[in-house]
Every structure is written in structure tokens, then in C-alpha cells.
């Protein structure tokens, strides 16, 4: 989908192996070799947000080429409460019929196989043994330790590298050029720091900037890409560093008066801690423990705005 009005998440979704910034040449060569050998019993392994599902879709696209037919692919939903047992009859019927494309096998796809129980994985493995002459079985997982050994031994394991800052920068620059986005270098740096290494989040932020259609500087990007502006948190942190306890408490109380709950404030400050350059790594470590302590307390007991003052006092005492 490359139409002008398409959402960015579809418009910039990779289609072929060459479109992925995180795939190294060795992995691409391996994938292409498996396609040419007509052997696609593959388990894609990678962290959340590394593009496992998109890579699987590109494998299917590269395998079938222009002959792609959705009736040749069966997608199993690992999140259904009934598990793969729910699909047993569907799988049986699908696997017993021939491919609609000459010299190509059908494909059964199971995303997040590590989320289903061992019994369901055994069912999937049995299907692989029984129908391997007619079906490719492609699956993905985040934690390979939760995938049974007998299933791993029947697949080719492909590890997907996490997205690096260099990959994210290339993706961002490509979209900026294509969409004529007018952003300052500080705005670029901030978006990369708050996207949490997720292409999906990065693209959503860039689409916001496209919608407002104006120059985006550091101040504006703080408002667009955070629930609570990090500029406010900068002011709060500087108050703490300068031992201005009363001013710091006032900033948090003002946020509370604007409608943010105590949990909202601490959740967003937790995210802010990870990227701020105002605090040393040692203080960040101690402060993260302190924030988590308060969040757990609010979740299990109660939430009171007075705790914002107590939190600020404890924060000052870290120095």
C-alpha cells in the first residue's frame, strides 16, 4: 500500500528483504537460499518490535512473488483461548488440499508460538511431520526457551537482530525526505530517544508531525511525542538538583491540577528518567527504584497527591 493518503504504518511497511534496515546480508542470503530450496520450515526469533511479523510477510511475498494467493496461506492465532486445538480441523482440511500455485507449497503461519502451551506446540509439531511434503510451517517467537526442543529441531532458526540507532535514523531520514518533514536536529534526536527502539512508535510520531505540517523544534516535539512535556520534567529535575524542594513540589502539583493522576505523573517521569542527560547513571538507578516503589504502592494500596510531595522529598535526599 503506497498511496499518498495511506497511514504511514502501511505506507512504509517493508515488502521485500531489501527494505529491512535490520537484516544483515547473511540473513538475507539465508532466506533467499531457503526459498530457492523450497524449504521454509522456519522459526523467526527476535525481541518485540524487531519486525518479526513483517519479515514473515516478506518471506511469503518473496516465495510466491506475483502469484501470491491468500488461499494458499493459513494464519493461526496464538492468542485465542482455545489455542491451536481450535484450529485442528481447519489445519487438517487446509493441509490435505494441494497448493493453488504450481511448484509451490502452501504455508501455515503461527506468530508468537512461545505464547501457546506445550501441548499445542506438540500438535503443531505433529502437523509438520505429517504434512511437510505439502506445507511450509513458519512461526515466530520472542523467547526461544519456551519453544519445545522437538519443534526447534524441525525448523531452521533465524535470529533477527534488534534495531540499532543507526537503523532507526535511516528509517526516519527516509520518511523525512519522502514526506518533506521540517524538523530541527534536536527534534530528530528527541524522537529517536523516546521511540523505545520501536519502528511503529517512530513512524506514528512522524505521522503526527506530517499532520500538523509546520516546522517542529525541540519545544513542539516535546508536546507532540509525550503525554507530559519533558520540558516540564526538565524544570522539575533542575529544581531537585538545586535543592529547591518547594518549587519542585509545586510543579508536580500543577500537573495534578491539570488533570493528570499521580500514577500518570510517575509513569511518565519513569520514561523521562531513561533519556534525560541531567542525571548521572548512578542517580538514575536509585531514582528508578524509588519511582517503582511508589508505583507499586499506589497500585496495591491507594493513590494520594500528598505522595508527590513525599516522593520529591525522597528524591532530594538521594543527593
UniProtKB/TrEMBL annotation:
Keyword ATP-binding recorded: yes
A single GO BP: DNA-templated DNA replication
One annotated Gene Ontology cellular component of this protein: DNA replication factor C complex
SMART domains reported in the protein's UniProt record: AAA (SM00382)
GO molecular function: ATP binding; ATP hydrolysis activity; DNA binding; DNA clamp loader activity
Keywords from the named record: ATP-binding, DNA replication, Nucleotide-binding
CDD domains reported for this sequence: AAA
Pfam families associated with the record: AAA
PROSITE patterns (UniProt xref): SIGMA54_INTERACT_1 (PS00675)
Classification via Gene3D superfamilies: P-loop containing nucleotide triphosphate hydrolases (3.40.50.300)
AAA+ ATPase domain: residues covered: 38-164
PANTHER family with a match to the protein in the record: REPLICATION FACTOR C / DNA POLYMERASE III GAMMA-TAU SUBUNIT, REPLICATION FACTOR C SUBUNIT 4
The protein's name in its UniProt record: AAA+ ATPase domain-containing protein
Organism: viral metagenome
Upper lineage: unclassified sequences, metagenomes, organismal metagenomes
